[in-house]
Design goal:
There is one protein chain. The protein is 42% helix and 27% strand. It is built from 3 helices and 10 strands, in the order ββββββββββααα. The protein is rod-shaped.
């Protein structure tokens, strides 16, 4: 913490968890422990890279103010993760009841005889926070939870293998079933064709009987037997 006569600044170093192509923000807290209204202004050596809100303001007596510094998304990683950017926070006593609208650049002009405090802030890149590991949490709680994690891990592996096998086996059974169904359909189709052929032959025999009715009852009985035999054969083929 930087403790000046007008404002105390926390922290003194702006730490950004660096990630490519992502805006990153960090905050500053300005504390006014005096009985005066204190105006402040934030400057940086690289204004195109950062956005500061608010970059100017007034901290009322015995109060605090938060300043958010946002670094624009970067396309390239800096060499050795080093940053040379710096910030300068200027503070000066303002008139009682002053607001942000009352702040002028002249208030921070030392040459005009104004009392101005200046604090320099460095910028540092730090690794982004990593999510906690479930294994680490278990190991911190003791040896028995760690054993249970290992048991659960083995259980999950065995369950996965069992599921994989049960998934493959129905594929083989289904292929056999499809082959059997296809075979039955072929047999059914062949039986229907034979039945149709027998019926055609029966029709031809009937026509011959009609032409030769004087041939006697023996031929008629023979035709009936042949027809019944054909129907029986068709029925048996359909049943299979």
């Amino acid at each position: 913490m930087s403790t000046g006569e007008l404002l105390s600044i926390e922290p003194q170093e702006l730490q950004f968890p660096f990630e490519l192509r992502k805006q990153i923000s960090c905050s500053l807290q300005l504390s006014n422990k005096t009985d005066n209204y204190v105006a402040f202004k934030v400057k940086t050596t690289n204004p195109k890279k950062y956005c500061v809100r608010p970059n100017t303001g007034v901290v009322m007596p015995r109060s605090t103010c938060d300043v958010i510094v946002t670094m624009q998304a970067q396309r390239e990683e800096p060499p050795d993760m080093q940053c040379k950017d710096k910030f300068l926070l200027q503070s000066a006593v303002a008139s009682p009841g002053a607001t942000t609208k009352d702040i002028t650049s002249e208030m921070f002009n030392k040459e005009a005889g104004n009392r101005v405090e200046e604090s320099k802030l460095r910028v540092a890149y730090v690794p982004p926070p990593q999510p906690p590991s479930p294994v680490r949490e278990g190991s911190e709680e003791g040896s028995s939870p760690r054993a249970s994690v290992s048991d659960n891990g083995n259980m999950n592996a065995s369950e996965f293998t069992a599921v994989s096998r049960s998934y493959v086996e129905p594929q083989d059974n289904s292929s056999e079933a499809r082959a059997l169904i296809s075979k039955l359909n072929e047999e059914k189709k062949s039986a229907i064709q034979q039945n149709n052929k027998l019926q055609q032959e029966l029709e031809l025999l009937k026509r011959e009987i009609n032409k030769n009715r004087g041939g006697g009852g023996v031929a008629f009985i023979y035709v009936i037997l042949v027809g019944l035999l054909g129907l029986l054969l068709g029925y048996l083929m359909k049943k299979t």
